[in-house]
Design brief:
The complex is a heterodimer of chains A (241) and B (806). Chain A has 241 residues and is an alpha+beta fold. Chain A has helices spanning 17-26, 80-85, 111-117, 138-142, 148-152, 163-178, 202-205, 214-240; strands at 3-8, 52-60, 63-71, 91-93, 100-102, 124-125, 131-132, 158-162, 185-187, 194-198. Chain A is globular, with a radius of gyration of 18 Å. Chain B has 806 residues and is of the alpha/beta class. Chain B is 22% helix and 16% strand. The two termini of chain B are 44 Å apart. The chains are: A alpha+beta (241), B alpha/beta (806). The A-B interface holds A 11, 13-17, 19-20, 23-24, 29-39, 41-42, 57, 59, 64-68, 154-156, 176 and B 22-23, 26-27, 29-30, 33, 36-37, 49, 51-55, 59, 685-687, 699-707, 709, 723-726, 740-746.
Chain lengths: 241, 806
């Protein structure tokens, strides 16, 4: 059965256990960071970092808020990156879980095109052009385990399960908070497998909290690329070889 | 904790003050979140807006070190608005007691002040007694000398205006907090407090907690589900270490260490005051059983009635002389201590006034550093500003294995003793602490056989906790629980020699039982290791007690003082979240605080067999008037030793008159000094553990929090021309360090008595060994070596600093 996350930012304490658990399960190296005047670190997603908890200090209705947003791939239902890649050996959707998976074959594709096609600015490339991002801990999930970020979350901010169950959970939680926070909403809930609940304007949490409009401008370009895809994919393989 | 972690979910109002639970006790938020989803309000009071504040319904800032003013205002609010839980206060606290006519409080000083000795004669902090020696009570609570009326008088000065002037919290914010919290005085409402080092690490640390204890008693919040006074311990087994008598002032099980004046065992066994009130259980009349059983556990067959069970071999304190952390390093600094075991500790970073600590280490002849990794303490001789050739201290490193590599138990904040099996085998030459200490003891015994000063305690020490030349934690756990040394008949029950005692009720004062720690009796019985239980079924009252998951001291009681959770007839004040109740002639639910019947029988008549609920206190009642402390029976606001104001607006007594001071050249202070104009405080971050010894070498955690930082307001940043992320220097009268400025909306300047006060804060989790740049240092280089008069815990939460651009 296809899966989904429900990320309840209203109870996230930004302990960042999820960030570390992600690195631990995927055995990703730490980045050399500096304190940039914020707790948020590493500064951005990278080839070695699939998850970053965004932390924003915002005064809303004269009250200070510290908004936390555990950023990760949304595993879109119709992933533009998959369309752009056009090569199931490099980017495919797991038929069972719905996870959007990148393989080492992505190094033969045009990484920048794939990155720019993502409405959430998620994929990151290595020096050789290989792409990486959250894989939904697909190996764990296939073995009956929770994704490691969900497993480690102490408050129930990170939830995971069957798509239907997560949608119901998200809706229930939205209903619970709506009366007190009229601006509360589920972000792009119909398009993604990682449904976030925010209490205020999602852009305050993080600029890519909701799908950016820029992908609209790409539509024509993408459509063109799609037409030529078999050729470009083969051409880039030849070039890499 | 009087309650336990899961119980937080039962609360209607959670006050988080003096702790930053979301960051330092992240798992607690599992239960806080659950309470919030059930409609609970979370209040956070902190100088800085933290990750805890971000999840709170109400956030109120206060100036560091003014908690008593803040809470004293709440006491006044509760009394003025008649919000106390009346029946509870009358029956279960000493509110109605008449205090000694000679007791007084005048302009910041209590009666009995000896200005020369700088301490109190506490003989007037007592109660009036009737002809039978029972405390006099005015059940109408009208008498001026009634505790509740003295309380009212004491806090009359703590009006909103005055409190706001001292704390910097606005009157509106104070009112919002007071109203919300005081609403839990209703019988079916529960309020709880979560505190940690933000309360303890002050010269008024104990009194901070006392103030809240008074509030909890006034509101009837002690003993109930979702209530209590809950200390969040700073390390997974710090509760266990205190229980087992790690500190100088107590033996295991909170038995006060004897001083040299108590020369004979019989003096020690007789020293406890007993109440003449027939309704007082007089718990401590049992203390001789615990003391003798403890001595038997230390000296085994060598302890007999003839030799006072080895009491003469026990160390005695010099009367009035403290041996706390601050005192040890003070003596070391002065050169009177020659050898030192730093065991699982990193004082070069964790000790307040770490500059003094590091200099003190150089006065040692030898130091043994027992730890997982080398640290700033073991390597102090090559640390910053230290010339190795000038240090004569010989340092030995004994590698200890990590907790998951050894078997044993930890006791968490909720008093749950939880057994853990060993995971992987220890790496390299590292050993479990138990093996290191056993081998050390065997070697000492061997050497003392050849002679030495006073060899008796070492030679007579029972030291049989090894099996196959290895430390056996089960042997220790069984000894801690206690066993019968010979066949014993207790009441109509017979016990064979060698069998485990079922609970402390079976301990004896004649040497027939041996018990390492009476509060743990019942943890490892003939039925097995109770702390290894992992059953996940809740008790019938369904409030998350899980009585067969691990084991809680004492006697598996999950909520202590639970006899106060019921009315005088034994029926729960809150039927929905009942803890215990009297049904068909017995108590059901949690293990009750004593099995005696309720105060009032079914016929409405007082039951002569009944006992007061707060069984550990002398008179059996909750102590609103608390005569046992060194600095006063009621908490009073005093300024921190270093503060930004020129006077105490509550009284002429500027700082705590009884605070612990030290006089070496390293004990420098600067109060109201233009060189150090900003209030400094210290804390921890989620991403590092204690001084960072386990986490700073861990790349995934360093990635998250790579550098020492100082947080300050945007206003202070602008004033000093400091940009966010730039490196700055922070200095105090004792030292300085370099760190990264975090300029944030989460600190705000405060108006204190008309002037603007800026506060800054720093984590203490860093040290020069890692990261290898050597530039990220501990905030304790700045903190003062001055302490609370009762515990002597240092005042690291409020001191004065300067911040300058590099």
């Amino acid at each position: 059965m296809s899966k989904a996350f429900f990320v309840d930012t209203t109870v996230c304490t930004a302990c960042r256990g999820c960030q570390v658990a992600c690195k631990q399960w995927h055995n990703l190296p730490a980045e050399l960071t500096t304190n940039r005047g914020t707790n948020e670190n590493p500064p951005d997603l990278s080839f070695d970092t699939y998850k970053v908890v965004r932390m924003r200090e915002e005064v809303i209705q004269k009250k200070l808020n510290w908004l936390f947003f555990p950023e990760q791939c949304r595993h879109c239902l119709s992933p533009p990156c998959l369309d752009t890649a056009g090569d199931p050996r490099a980017v495919y959707k797991d038929e069972v879980t719905g996870a959007v998976i990148y393989t080492a074959e992505t190094r033969f594709l045009n990484a920048d095109d794939i990155i720019s096609s993502c409405p959430y600015n998620i994929p990151r490339k290595s020096a050789d052009g290989t792409l990486a991002k959250c894989d939904m801990c697909n190996d764990r999930v296939h073995n009956g385990m929770m994704p490691s970020c969900v497993q480690t979350c102490p408050t129930g901010a990170m939830n995971f399960g069957d798509e239907k169950e997560m949608k119901e959970l998200a809706q229930k939680r939205l209903n619970d908070v709506k009366s007190r926070y009229p601006e509360a909403k589920l972000l792009d809930a119909e398009d993604v497998r990682v449904i976030y609940l925010t209490l205020y304007d999602p852009k305050l949490y993080f600029k890519y909290a909701v799908a950016s409009n820029s992908d609209v401008n790409l539509t024509r370009q993408l459509a063109l690329k799609k037409m030529f895809r078999p050729l470009t994919a083969i051409a880039s393989r030849v070039l890499q070889a | 904790m009087t309650n336990h972690w899961i119980d937080l979910k039962n609360s209607d109002c959670i006050l988080i003050m003096g702790s930053n639970a979301a960051e330092n006790h992240p798992i607690s938020f599992k239960w806080i979140t659950e309470a919030q989803k059930n409609g609970a309000k979370v209040i956070n009071v902190d100088p800085r807006f933290t990750r805890t504040s971000s999840k709170s319904d109400i956030y109120a800032p206060l100036r560091s070190g003014t908690d008593i003013a803040f809470l004293g205002g709440m006491i006044k609010f509760i009394l003025d608005n008649k919000l106390i839980a009346e029946e509870y206060v009358l029956n279960y606290t000493n509110a109605s007691f008449l205090v000694n006519k000679d007791y007084s409080f005048n302009d910041g000083l209590f009666s009995g002040w000896d200005a020369k000795a700088k301490k109190y004669d506490r003989s007037t902090w007592t109660f009036q007694l009737d002809a039978n020696g029972v405390p006099l009570r005015d059940l109408m609570m009208k008498d001026n000398l009634c505790v509740i009326n003295l309380l009212k008088k004491h806090y009359d000065r703590y009006n909103l205006k005055q409190v706001s002037k001292i704390t910097g919290t606005s009157e509106a914010e104070l009112l919002e907090v007071y109203k919300t919290y005081a609403a839990t005085g209703a019988n079916d409402k529960a309020g709880t407090i979560m505190y940690a080092m933000g309360w303890t690490q002050h010269t008024v640390g104990v009194q901070n907690i006392r103030t809240m204890s008074i509030i909890q008693l006034l509101l009837g919040n002690m003993g109930i589900a979702g209530g209590g006074v809950n200390a969040l311990r700073g390390e997974s087994n710090v509760q266990g270490s205190t229980d087992q008598g790690l500190l100088f002032h107590i033996w295991p099980g909170y038995i006060p260490s004897p001083n040299g004046k108590i020369a004979k065992l019989e003096d020690m066994l007789k020293r406890r005051a007993q109440s003449k009130d027939p309704l007082s259980l007089n718990w401590w009349q049992n203390e001789p059983k615990y003391i003798v059983s403890f001595l038997k556990s230390l000296f085994g067959d060598k302890a007999s009635a003839e030799n006072e069970f080895g009491y003469p071999w026990m160390p005695k304190l010099d009367e009035g002389k403290p041996y706390s952390w601050l005192d040890l390093f003070d003596e070391m600094y002065k050169g009177s201590i020659k050898g030192f075991f730093a065991w699982g500790m990193n004082p070069a970073c964790s000790g307040s006034n770490a500059t003094k600590v590091r200099k003190a280490l150089a006065n040692l002849e030898w130091m043994v550093n027992v730890n997982l990794f080398d640290n700033e303490t073991g390597s102090f001789w090559k640390g910053p500003e230290t010339i190795p050739e000038n240090v004569a201290t010989e340092v030995f490193m004994l590698p200890a294995c990590v907790s998951v590599e050894k078997e044993g138990s930890i006791s968490n904040s909720g008093r749950w003793m939880q057994w853990r099996y060993a995971g992987p085998k220890p790496l390299g030459n590292s050993l479990p602490d138990g093996d290191i200490i056993m081998e050390l003891g065997l070697k000492l015994k061997e050497l003392y056989k050849e002679g030495g000063v006073f060899p008796d305690p070492i030679l007579n020490l029972k030291w049989d906790y090894m099996a196959d030349h290895k430390f056996d934690p089960h042997k220790v756990a069984k000894q801690i629980n206690g066993f019968f040394v010979k066949d014993v008949k207790v009441g109509d029950q017979e016990f064979k020699m060698g069998s485990q005692v079922p609970s402390f009720a079976f301990l004896q004062n004649d040497g027939s039982t041996s018990c390492g720690n009476w509060v743990y009796a019942g943890s490892y019985t003939d039925k097995g290791n109770m702390s290894a239980r992992r059953k996940q079924e809740d008790a019938p009252n369904k409030i998350g007690l899980y009585p067969e998951f691990a084991w809680a001291w004492p006697v598996n009681r999950r909520i202590i003082y639970n006899r106060a959770a019921v009315d005088p007839k034994g029926q729960p004040y809150d039927a929905k979240r009942w803890v215990i109740q009297w049904k068909d002639g017995k108590w059901i639910g949690d293990v009750p605080d004593g099995g005696q019947p309720p105060l009032v029988g079914p016929d409405g008549q007082p039951d002569p067999k009944a006992k007061h609920p707060f069984i550990m206190t002398v008179h059996g009642l909750g102590q609103i008037f608390g005569p046992g402390l060194n600095d006063g029976p009621f908490p009073e606001h005093y300024e921190p030793l270093e503060c930004p104001v020129e006077k105490n607006f509550m009284s002429s007594q500027f700082t705590s008159p009884t605070a612990a001071h030290y006089g070496t050249s390293a004990d420098t202070f600067a109060t109201c000094d233009p060189r150090y104009p900003y209030v400094g405080t210290t804390y921890r971050v989620s991403e590092h553990w204690q001084t960072g010894l386990l986490t700073r070498p861990q790349p995934w955690l360093m990635e998250l929090q790579p550098q020492m930082f100082v947080e300050m307001s945007e206003e202070l940043g602008a004033l000093k021309g400091i940009r966010n992320g730039e490196r700055v220097k922070v200095s105090s009268a004792r030292g300085s360090l370099e760190c990264t400025a975090v300029v944030t909306k989460r600190f705000k300047p405060m108006k204190i008595a008309g002037t603007v006060v800026h506060q800054v804060g720093m984590p203490y989790n860093y040290g020069w060994r890692w990261p290898t740049s050597g530039k990220e240092e501990s905030a304790n280089l700045l903190t003062p070596s001055v302490g609370d008069p009762n515990t002597r815990i240092p005042e690291t939460k409020a001191f004065m600093v300067n911040v300058t651009k590099l």
